[in-house]
Write a structure and sequence with these properties.
The complex is a heterodimer of chains A (about 110) and B (about 110). Chain A is mainly beta and about 110 residues long. Chain A is about 0% helix and about 55% strand. Chain B is mostly beta strands and about 110 residues long. Chain B contains no helices and 11 strands. Chain B starts with a strand and ends with a strand. The chains are: A mainly beta (about 110), B mainly beta (about 110). The interface between A and B is medium-sized, with 26 and 27 residues.
Chain lengths: ~110, ~110
């Protein structure tokens, strides 16, 4: 039973347009959600997060939206840049539980110049 | 700014051999984690530690052991390597709640 799902293995967008990456979860106990970005041969790096008490968090070109009733979150990148091309992982956790994160399988974003 | 350092970066083992992967962090973080990532999949938690001298099982602990004798180091051991353990292993550390994990660059392990 996969508790965090990223249903799109890949996404291709044109430079300057919006990239929307989606993530669904099943465990209603999750109270903190994170997005990580991963380049080849490197470890994941933290991008942006959101607490379950919020429905939106913005950081520069990156915005994460949380819809608790639908158990869905999304990452918006505007405008997309070629350097954004990477694998994006959605992660969720219960923050009282030693911070153990459950990860989705990732979405490979390709931004074309 | 070293952050999280994993040693070695690559290793090839034969079935049945043993080895230890080392993770070192210089951020004085309490929490440390070992994950494995297989092709097309997300990271799966093997073991974790909430502080020096503590360890606990994660999602996929079988075939692995860990130790955290010093706060800055978290060791992952394979006592008898199996081909199913071929993977990329990531170590991560974290400070307090509502903080993200900091990852190392991974150890690519192949078992023949």
């Amino acid at each position: 039973d996969q508790q965090v799902k990223q249903n799109s293995p890949s996404l291709s967008v044109q430079e300057g347009r919006i990239s929307i990456l989606n993530c669904d979860y099943t465990n209603s106990m999750f109270d903190y959600f994170l997005w990580y970005k991963k380049y080849p041969a490197e470890g994941p790096t933290f991008l942006i997060s959101i607490s379950s008490i919020k429905d939106k968090n913005e950081d520069g070109r990156f915005t994460v939206f949380l819809n608790k009733s639908a158990k869905h979150l999304s990452l918006h990148i505007v405008p997309s840049q070629p350097g954004d091309s990477a694998v994006y992982f959605c992660a969720a956790r219960v923050d009282t539980n030693a911070g153990k994160s459950t990860f989705g399988d990732g979405t490979t974003l390709t931004v074309k110049p | 700014n070293a952050g999280v350092t994993q040693t070695p970066k690559f290793r090839v083992l034969k079935t049945g051999q043993s080895m230890t992967l080392l993770c070192a962090q210089d951020m004085n973080h309490e929490y440390m984690y070992w994950y494995r990532q297989d092709p097309g999949m997300g990271l799966r938690l093997i073991h974790y530690s909430v502080g020096e001298g503590t360890t606990a099982k994660g999602e996929v602990p079988d075939g692995y052991n860990v130790s955290r004798l010093k706060k800055q180091n978290f060791l992952l051991g394979l006592e008898s390597a199996a081909p199913s353990q071929t993977s990329v292993y990531f170590c991560a550390s974290r400070d307090q709640v509502n903080q993200p994990q900091h990852f190392g660059d991974g150890t690519r392990l192949s078992i023949l």
